[in-house]
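[agent] plan:
  1. take the single chain provided in the ticket
  2. run structure prediction with default settings
  3. attach structure tokens to the ticket
  4. add a short note for the reviewer (M.T.)
[agent] executing step 1
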Amino acid sequence: MEKDMLYKRAQQKAKMLKDLYSHVIIYLIFNSGLFVINYLTSPGEWWVLYPVIGWGFCLSLKAIDTYTKVYRFGSEWEQRKIDQLFQKELEHMDK
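[agent] step 2 finished; step 3 output follows
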């Protein structure tokens, strides 16, 4: 039973990473196209920076969210932290 739960959790993490990577690829392709359009139509005005920066900021927030959930602050971390704090409370009561 526990292996099934761990497998589902691993599947969820893999899906989150896959979604992030696909967003990065779309970001690169789309903004490369915008850069070409900008260069060909108005090379003196770099309006392409606005969508690149805006979308890049949102993408960086998604990356931070994904990596903190996948690698750092997932449910395993929360359970370990609860156990750690509980043990400290028990040790404090024993003194």
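[agent] step 4 note for reviewer: The chain is about 90% helix and 0% strand.
[agent] ticket updated
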